[in-house]
Amino acid sequence: MTRTAHPLPVGTAVHHIGQIWARRLPGGTAVIREVQGPYHDGAYEYLLDGTRDFSARPGPDNPMNEPRQWASYATIPAPATLTDKDPTP
After folding, report:
1. Could you give phi then psi for residue 29, rounded to 5 degrees?
2. How far, in Å, CA of 89 to CA of 49, rounded?
3. Contacts of residue 38, Cβ cutoff 8 Å, sequence gap at least 6
4. What span, in angstroms and rounded, lies between the C-alpha atoms of 64 and 42?
5. Of the residues 3, 27, 36, 52, which has the fewest C-beta atoms closer than 10 A?
């Protein structure tokens, strides 16, 4: 099993680990705009622009303009293209 190297760069499209339905979604459900850390436990904090509705796919009625904060251990990079293979290790 491979792990995602953190911190991810600003501008990276991501999804939250709790958004299992979004693992194959290109463009993710949020974009990193700032990185803070590392903290005492080695984790980073991402300040992101995410969808208004956390449980719905991004689109015109659900833009990615809601400020969010996610820990690095709950943040996964989004695939570049639509895939039928789960990119999450």
Report:
1. -125, 5
2. 24
3. 7, 44
4. 28
5. 3
